Amino acid sequence: MHTIQTLDLNDTRTIIDAGIAEAERIGSPSNIAVVDAGGCLLAFARMDDAWRGSVDIAISKAWTARAFDVETKALAKLSQPGADFYGIHASNDGKVMIFAGGVPMKKGETVIGAVGVSGGTGKQDQGVAEAAAKAFAHG
């Protein structure tokens, strides 16, 4: 029998709370999405004053990080003209996000979900996503 390891709803509380805390610390109202091992949305939070246009972007960043098991920041570098994954953002009906802010979450070496953040600069989104992922890893 094969058992799938995945994030669950209880895990999302730690992840989202840590993301909100970091977003508040750096002054970047954010949208924070968490997906499970199958890429399905588990939880979402839109902070007050976070851009409404970034809701879908945060969800897609989380999905992308899980779908390809890579940080979206790294995928952005791999998808530039002339690189191996150029044009990947047009795949999957345009759901693939190549902006920083999507981070796979692991238990050991197994990816069990991902977090996606949108609402600030790439550096801000990445920092919030990393803080959220780190809190879960140490939780």
Automatic annotation (TrEMBL):
SUPFAM superfamilies: GlcG-like (SSF143744). Gene3D superfamilies: Haem-degrading domain. PANTHER family: PROTEIN GLCG, SLR1406 PROTEIN. This is Uncharacterized protein GlcG (DUF336 family). It comes from Novosphingobium marinum. The lineage of its organism: Bacteria, Pseudomonadati, Pseudomonadota, Alphaproteobacteria, Sphingomonadales.
